[in-house]
């Protein structure tokens, strides 16, 4: 059934405005969506798509992927953590109410550390960095799922998902600040039947939810694979694009979910939070645009040249590298390279055959190829040291070069730390606004999981801040730490327990168990030493006659005698 423009929902008109803005962004002969698809294809190694080679080799030296993998791994190698704090409250406060608030914040810190692991947030953050390198943008969307079972009376919890940058539309696309937006739209695709069932549950009339039908509007999705879906078997098996509009009213965030011709939410919903549940970031910021500049796009021209130059070199080697034979066809009817085959010649053999030498390739071609390859990597801050293409003979020099090579990543690292901080702030909003009933939250204390009762209601009027801490920046720092600890242990400046307590996490499996066992052994040895000292004191205080009798006893009886004496006195 066909629908007219008058049937289009208000939300979808805003979606179309966002599409139009993105289509105006130019990257050479491509718009924003074309750039995103091309960059993803180059990362995959599909770098000759659409090119008719006509016999020309199609080699790929995937510099783009190599640079992406290094830069993302370098940023993620830092052990990034975050801590909540309350503005205007000192950690040394004596006020009981303020102490209660600080205690609640400490519970939040421990809980979010566990939830970060449970939600696989490190993997999501890594994918966000990969996306921002490729498309210029990274984004997550956090929502409240009331169906989540918590194992206690209070149900429901928040979840965080990765969102493609192309699926986020800002009401003010000239600013990348989330909190200043008049509205934000989150796009997605879902099965028609599921969308219709959701509309029914929300009280939408049959006349309206029947307008939710399958479509092929995949041109605005990320990557080539995002435009490929299962063949539809009936309208209910197909997919449709939906949009979640987020905006602020009366200090709170509201939402409404729609498709092109039907509002899935009959009424707007107050989400009960005051911050947008969207976290947005760029690889490199672009002035007056919420979309960032992807580094992949900067590499593509050099990537194309390297591929084409290598293809020409390979073709030349195929055609010219081997010497050829020239023969007089008046004397020789045909030529064969088959081993041991006799070749008949008419007349004198002299001058009938000549072996031609292989062609000589201009060395400048190789020099230019290698120069472009190496200079491209150098310009991107990627050298042999950071890529592991050097023997670690002088570790001090390697560490110095490695630290220097990380300087070009300072901006991206700062953007990423801000992204993590914003994610924690969104989480804090859900915790403070949604965990108002008494909930039991897991806490990790001395390696053991305990549970604390939590009610966030006292925190609702507090200003919560987030501080991001960054750990060791590279594998080399761990090696340096281990070398220093080894020297301290060998020099007996620290004992074995102090050594174990300070080695980097993950170096020794079941480290805490080993520490506990060693402490128990030392305590047992100390008790035994104290016991022997007491026995010696008793032995020296015996009267002469009793001492003489004691000296004649065998060693095992002497010890038994002293133990019995100690027990009687105790």
Overall residue-averaged pLDDT value: 84
Distance between the termini: 97 Å
- Rounded to the nearest angstrom, the radius of gyration is 36 Å
Instruction: State the strand order across the main sheet.
Output: 6-7-8-9-10
* DSSP strand tally: 16
Structural class computed from helices and strand pairing: alpha+beta
Task: Give helix % range.
Answer: 40-55%
Which residue ranges are poorly predicted, with pLDDT under 50 across at least 5 consecutive positions?
394-402, 472-476
Q: Determine the oligomeric state from the structure.
A: single chain
Q: What's the tally of helices?
A: 17
| Main sheet: strands, sense, barrel | 5 strands, antiparallel
Q: How much strand content do the residues show?
A: 15-25%
Shape: flat
Outline the structure in words.
With 570 residues, the chain is of the alpha+beta class. Helices cover 44% and strands 16% of the residues. It has helices spanning 10-24, 32-44, 63-76, 96-118, 121-135, 192-201, 206-209, 295-320, 363-379, 384-387, 395-405, 410-434, 475-490, 496-502, 511-540, 544-551, 555-569; strands at 26-27, 30-31, 81-86, 137-145, 157-163, 168-170, 184-191, 239-249, 252-258, 269-270, 278-282, 324-327, 353-356, 439-445, 448-454, 464-469. Strands 6-7-8-9-10 form a five-stranded antiparallel β-sheet. A three-stranded antiparallel β-sheet has the order 5-4-11. A two-stranded antiparallel sheet has the order 1-2. Strand 14 (439-445) and strand 15 (448-454) form a beta hairpin. Helix 3 crosses helix 5 (121-135) and helix 8 runs antiparallel to helix 9.
């Amino acid at each position: 059934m066909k629908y007219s423009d008058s049937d289009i929902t208000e939300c979808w008109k805003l979606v179309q405005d966002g599409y139009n803005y993105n289509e105006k962004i130019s990257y050479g002969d491509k718009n924003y969506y074309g750039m995103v698809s091309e960059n993803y294809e180059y990362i995959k190694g599909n770098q000759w798509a659409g090119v008719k080679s006509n016999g020309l080799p199609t080699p790929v030296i995937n510099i783009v992927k190599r640079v992406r993998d290094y830069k993302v791994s370098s940023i993620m190698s830092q052990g990034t953590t975050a801590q909540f704090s309350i503005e205007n409250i000192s950690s040394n406060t004596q006020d009981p109410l303020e102490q209660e608030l600080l205690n609640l914040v400490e519970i939040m810190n421990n809980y979010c550390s566990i939830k970060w692991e449970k939600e696989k947030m490190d993997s999501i953050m890594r994918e966000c960095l990969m996306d921002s390198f490729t498309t210029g943008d990274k984004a997550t969307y956090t929502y409240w799922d009331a169906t989540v079972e918590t194992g206690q009376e209070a149900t429901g919890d928040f979840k965080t998902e990765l969102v493609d940058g192309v699926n986020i539309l800002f009401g003010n696309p000239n600013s990348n600040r989330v909190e200043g937006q008049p509205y934000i739209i989150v796009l997605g695709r879902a099965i028609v039947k599921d969308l219709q069932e959701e509309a029914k549950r929300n009280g939408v009339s049959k006349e309206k939810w029947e307008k939710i039908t399958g479509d092929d509007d995949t041109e605005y999705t990320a990557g080539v694979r995002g435009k490929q879906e299962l063949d539809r078997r009936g309208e209910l098996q197909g997919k449709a694009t939906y949009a979640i509009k987020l905006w602020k009213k009366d200090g709170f965030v509201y939402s409404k979910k729609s498709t092109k011709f039907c509002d899935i939410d009959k009424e707007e919903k107050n989400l009960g939070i005051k911050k947008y549940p969207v976290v947005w970031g760029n690889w490199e910021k672009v002035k007056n645009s919420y979309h960032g500049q992807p580094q992949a796009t900067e590499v593509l021209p050099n990537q194309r040249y390297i591929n084409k130059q290598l293809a020409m070199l390979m073709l030349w080697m195929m055609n010219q590298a081997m010497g050829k034979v020239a023969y007089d066809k008046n004397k020789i009817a045909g030529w064969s390279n088959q081993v041991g085959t006799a070749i008949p010649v008419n007349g004198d053999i002299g001058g009938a055959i000549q072996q031609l030498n292989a062609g000589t390739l201009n060395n400048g071609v190789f020099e230019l190829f290698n120069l472009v390859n190496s200079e491209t990597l150098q310009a991107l801050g990627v050298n042999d040291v950071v890529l592991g293409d050097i023997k670690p003979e002088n570790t001090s020099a390697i560490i110095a070069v490695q630290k220097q090579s990380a300087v070009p990543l300072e901006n991206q690292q700062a953007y990423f730390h801000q992204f993590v901080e914003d994610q924690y702030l969104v989480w804090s909003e859900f915790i403070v606004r949604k965990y108002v009933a008494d909930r039991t939250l897991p806490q990790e204390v001395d390696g053991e999981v305990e549970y604390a009762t939590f009610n966030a209601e006292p925190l609702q009027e507090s200003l919560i801040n987030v501080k991001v801490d960054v750990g060791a920046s590279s594998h080399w720092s761990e090696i340096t730490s281990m070398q220093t600890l080894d020297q301290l242990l060998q020099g007996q400046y620290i004992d074995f327990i102090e050594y174990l307590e300070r080695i980097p996490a993950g170096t020794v499996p079941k480290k805490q168990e080993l520490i506990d066992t060693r402490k128990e052994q030392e305590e047992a040895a100390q008790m035994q030493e104290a016991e022997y000292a007491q026995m010696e004191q008793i032995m020296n205080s015996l009267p002469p006659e009793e001492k003489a009798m004691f000296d004649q006893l065998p060693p095992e009886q002497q010890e038994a005698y002293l133990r019995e004496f100690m027990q009687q006195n105790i």
